[in-house]
Structures are given as structure tokens and as C-alpha cells.
Amino acid sequence: MNALSQPRRPLAESSARRDAAHFINGEFTQGTTGKFYDNFCPVDGSRIGSVPEGGKAEIDAAVKAARAAMEGPWGQMTLNERAALLNKVAAEINRRFDEFLEAECLDTGKPMSLASHIDIPRGAANFTMFIDVAKTVSSECFPMDTPDGKGALNYGLRRPRGVIAVISPWNLPLLLMTWKVGPALALGNTVVVKPSEATPLTATLLGEVMNTCGVPKGVYNVVHGFGGNSAGEFLTQHPGVNGITFTGSTRSGEMLMREAARGVRPVSLELGGKNPGIVFADADMDKAIEGTMRSAFANCGQVCLGTERVYVQRPIFDEFVARLKAGAEGLKLGRPEDPTTGIGPLVSDTHRKKVLSYYAKAVEQGATVVTGGGIPDMPGDLAGGAWIQPTIWTGAADDAAIVTEEIFGPCCHIRPFDTEEEVIKLANGTPYGLAAAVWTENLSRAHRVASKLEVGICWVNSWFLRDLRTAFGGAKASGIGREGGVHSLEFYTEMTNVCVKL
Ligand code: NAD
């Protein structure tokens, strides 16, 4: 794996700058719709290449290829054979690390120092981890009494669910896509992936890896396109799909669930959030500042688990705001390949418009802008990118848009609180329930507060510390279901109870 400090070539020269293609039944194709759109790099607005927009025919071909692979060589493979192939896939991602890194950073603009730490290594680890799960998981067994005294034995048998539709977002494209593809394949399913329209490159590259490693054709398919009335919706509507796993916004999740109702197909939904950070007066201030800096600004704030609401106990409120402000103002906006870059651009100009609309609303609704609030002056070609200032507000009402709605940008609102009861109520006061970060040195308080927060993931004195064996998912409007470790069995396998009369 690559050292973070090594000099990297400018993305302008990257060979990852190329047209995307669908990957269907082991072959790259531009499809038959004749529709293409341009893929732009958010760093400078330059054109990366074209992307074909898939239609019903491409989705149908991909689902049929996935079905044929299930019924053919893939379905007949032993677990050990499957595991050997997927271990090769992980190794090949690591061997082509720089290509994946450049492709991901071209599409998203994120710093290479971040993507080389998180996105690409996790893309590989998502395969190896779920092979371990598939190999080590046990099944339940219930011996039962019967009136004749001889008894019966019940045991659970898990089968792959079938053809899985994977629909993924743009913020961590390879990581979040393989977070679904890894368990799906390790547990014997086949997949049709619809990556985000904004980030088509790494999903395409993974097709090359699958072929190099000898993964049978049809096991991994990719169809590019948009959501509604495009490849995404056509995929969810296809009757040959046995389950739909989705990461994206709550609004899209609701639409997708309606489609899944046809044929009663199961869904796994990892949706939006409006995550609170809670800093008690007894917190280790250095740790709380370092963690909140990351949770608010990492990946330019485009992390579903990120903190957009920070509640700070009154005695340390002023100091916390001043230190977070200094931290935000110290972040260097820069090119992905520059190792000193602290923050990249947003993913697109379209997304910047959305985030800026919240920056404007904050002022209209009476918030105080502590720092940021607009578009920075960027030199030279960077002026064409989707850059935005890291922003901190105070003083907004609890029902203001910036406090209740997901913005998905490098920003947070900080509000003082007095008591534990008060802050728990505030933290639980949105329809979302994805994650929370609690900062305190009081052990009893940490456990007490964590148990009362209506979230799927609660960090204490940390943020984004992930053990892939643990349950991952959101409460309330942040999702349905949990994935990770053995929890992924629930969605990616179907259980049959076998009852044997002895
Ligand atoms: P999005 O919902 O706009 O799009 C996500 C994917 O769904 C894209 O591939 C898109 O083309 C597709 N899509 C959209 N509408 C569709 C439809 N009607 N039918 C089928 N497919 C459709 O989300 P986004 O803007 O790409 O990503 C940002 C959102 O994702 C944020 O809300 C963020 O919180 C959420 N997210 C959640 C998690 C999590 O684990 N809970 C992780 C990352 C991102």
C-alpha cells in the first residue's frame, strides 16, 4: 500500500481520466440507448469523459446475466472457491491502488490523503471481511420434544437471496458500493450495481478487476444512469431482482421502497442523517475539537455520519466555538494530490447550489455566521471547481432549517445546553436517527446518554471508528435494517428452517 507522503502525479495527467462504460455479463459496453452525459471533475470543472445512460434494455440484460450466473458456475461454486476468487479481487484492488485512488479523486475531488486512508483500503477490506463472515458463521439448532418421546431437530439453512440490486451514492463511491457487493458475493448472490451518476469511475474499474481475477461473467454487473425514470428506477422495477440494497437520501429511499413493494422484495436502506455531537463540560477538549473537526469537515462534510449539530455544555461553549472556528479557518483547501490539502471541493456544482441555499437560509433565519458562509476565492483553474467555505453557525432556533435538515456540506451549528436531559431531548429532536458522537470523561454519563439516543450508531470520545463486524444502519428516517458482520446475513440470505422428525 502507498505511503501517504509520497509525491503524487497531478490528476490532470491521470490515465483514470476516461469514458465510463456499463459492465454487463463480463463485457464493457456503451449500451443501446444512444444517451450519454458528461462527467466533470469538481476540482476544476474539467470534463473527465462521457458516461452512457442505461435504459430498460441494459437493466434487463444485466439482471438476466446475474440470474444466469446464479444458476450457472457461480451458484455451483463451493464457498472455498468463491472465497479464493474474492480474496483475489481484494488483492487486485490493492495492486491497482493508484488507479482506484486517482479515479475516485477525479470523480469526487476528495484529498488523496483521505481516499488512500479510507476509501480504497476499505473497498478491498469489504471483500475479505465478508469472506470471513461467510466462512465462520454458524446456524441455529433447536432440538424439540414431541409427544412420541422421540423428538425432532430444527436447524436453520441459509441460501443466497438471488440477484441483488445495489444502488449507491457519490460521497464514498467505492467504499459504499463494495460495502454491499462484498457481502452479497461472499454469501453467494450476484449483483447489478447502479452507481451514482456523479461518480461512475471506480465501479467501472472494478469490472476490469473481476475479469482479471476470473470471477464468472454475470456475477458483477454495472449499469450507469440516473435515479428516477432512468437506470436506478428501472433496476428497482425489474421483477428479476430479489432484493434491493440502497445507500442514499431518505427521499430516494422512500421512492425506492414503493417500487420494492411490487413482488414484496426486501430492502436494506442506509439513508440520510442530521447527526448530533454532544460535548459535555468534562470532555477532553483537545479530543472533542479534533473529533468534531473531522466529523463536521472531513470529505467536505459529505459523510452520512457527519456532525451538523453540535451541542456544547455552557461552561465550555465559548472556548469550544473559538477553537472550532480556528480549526475551520486553518483547513487548507487544495488539490487532491497535494498532501497538505485538508479539504476538497463539494462533489458538483449542483450540490454546491444546494449547500449554498442553506448558507443563505441560515442568515435569513437569524443565525450568526461564526466563520465561512460562502464561496472562497480559488486561484487559476481551481476557480472552475465546486469549492465552498467550511462554515460554522451559532444562534439558530431549534426548528431552523440548518438545525433540522440534512445539508451534506462542510458546516455545523453549535448550540449551548445546560443539562443531560435537555441535550438528549435536543439530540433526538429530528426525524433522523443515524449516528451521534458523545464527548465526556464521565463513564456513567457516557453509557447513560448512549442508551437514550435514538440512533443506529453512537460513538463515545471518537467518530468514524468502524469495526466492520458491528451492526451498521440508521434508526427512524435514517434507514431500515442493519448490515455489517453477521447482521448482513439477514438481508443477503434467505433462511429455511428444516424440521426433522426423529
Ligand atoms: P440520492 O438519494 O440522490 O442518490 C443515491 C443513489 O440513488 C444514486 O445512485 C441515484 O441515482 C439513485 N436514485 C435516486 N433516485 C432513485 C430512484 N427513484 N430509484 C432508484 N434509484 C434512485 O443520494 P446522493 O445525493 O447520491 O447521496 C447523498 C445521500 O446519501 C445523503 O442523504 C446521505 O446522508 C446519504 N448517505 C447515507 C449513508 C448511510 O450509510 N446511511 C451513507 C452515505 C450517504
Structure, explained:
This protein is an alpha/beta fold and 502 residues long. The chain is built from 17 helices and 22 strands. It has 2 domains: 285 residues, Aldehyde Dehydrogenase, Chain A, domain 1; 192 residues, Aldehyde Dehydrogenase, Chain A, domain 2. The strands form 6 sheets. Strands 14-15-16-13-12-18-19 form a 7-stranded mixed sheet, sandwiched between helices. A hairpin with a 2-residue loop joins strand 1 and strand 2. The longest helix has 18 residues. It is globular, with a radius of gyration of 23 Å. The mean pLDDT is 97. The site of nicotinamide-adenine-dinucleotide has 31 residues, from helix 9 and helix 10.
Strand content: 15-25%
Question: How much is the radius of gyration in Å?
Answer: 23 Å
Please describe the biggest sheet, giving its number of strands, its sense, and whether it closes into a barrel: 7 strands, mixed
* Uncertain residue ranges: none
End-to-end Cα distance, whole Å, is 55 Å
Write down the domain tally.
2
Give the full name of the CATH homologous superfamily of the largest domain: Aldehyde Dehydrogenase, Chain A, domain 1
Shape: globular
Number of strands: 22
* Sheet with the most strands: spatial strand order: 14-15-16-13-12-18-19
Structural class by secondary-structure content: alpha/beta
Label the CATH architecture of the largest domain: 3-Layer(aba) Sandwich
Oligomeric state of this protein: single chain
What CATH calls the topology of the largest domain is Aldehyde Dehydrogenase, Chain A, domain 1
Mean pLDDT: 97
- Ligand names: nicotinamide-adenine-dinucleotide
Task: Please write the CATH class name of the largest domain.
Answer: Alpha Beta
